[in-house]
Amino acid sequence: MDRNGNTYTFLYAAVMVIVVAALLAATAVSLKPFQKRNIEIEKMQNILASVNIQADVQNASKIYKEKITTTYVVDAKGNKKEGVNAFTVNLKKERSLPVAERSLPVYEANVDGKVKYIIPLRGAGLWGPIWGYISLDEDMNTIFGANFDHQGETPGLGAEISTTAFEAPFIGKKIFNAEGKLVSITVAKKGEKAEPAHSVDAISGGTITSKGLEQMISDDLNSYKEFFNKKK
Q1: Nearest to 64 by CA among 47, 83, 84
Q2: How confident is the model over 88-108, as pLDDT tens digits?
Q3: What are phi and psi of 16, to 5 degrees?
Q4: Interatomic CA distance for residues 36 and 150, integer angstroms
Q5: For residue 232, what pLDDT is reported?
Q6: Degrees, nearest 5: CA angle 74-183-215
Q7: What Rg do the C-alpha atoms of the chain give, in angstroms?
Q8: From the CB of residue 187, how many other CB atoms can be counted at a distance below 10 Å?
Q9: DSSP 3-state assignment of 62?
Q10: What angle do CA 131, 133, 136 make, to 5 degrees?
Q11: What is the pLDDT of residue 31?
Q12: Most exposed: 91, 154, 227, 229, by fewest CB within 10 Å?
């Protein structure tokens, strides 16, 4: 075959494309278990952070096994669903379903001999999905800790939801009012009236993300309302 001809050039380019594609596919397949494990470790770290326990990549799995004593899934009526793994529930998929059809994960943690209930959250910020975890004391009313994250909120503005400075004020807030109504938490922008027991300050310049997070917390906590009432 004439190496200077168009046919040779075309075949050579085609073979190279196939070889490179095969190498990339093989690399992706070989790395997939490691990527999956990294995602699981990060999830464990976030769950632990919601009960104010810090863990790194090396010890997250060990601490998670020690501190997270029970996991299960409930339905909108607060009844346990058998045969569903709480850790592997796809929140994005569940949030697309009617509340009555959702699988709602619950994680129970042992912190200093007391049970904390961890509730996963998922919603929408300004530029993409936001998510997180809120933990509650045994009264199913007082927030013990909170951890939030995002996919692409603006650095220095909406992205501040994943900082300790924003998360810490949630500690000690109440999600039920004195009459027993689930009022959730208001993420109050400057000048907005809100009950101190049920509110935290919004991020300056990040109003849309703040309000998206407020809506996320309200929607998801209300999904668990019957579960909270049963536990109370």
Answers
A1: 47
A2: 999 999 999 999 999 999 999
A3: -65, -40
A4: 19
A5: 82
A6: 75
A7: 23
A8: 28
A9: helix
A10: 150
A11: 65
A12: 229
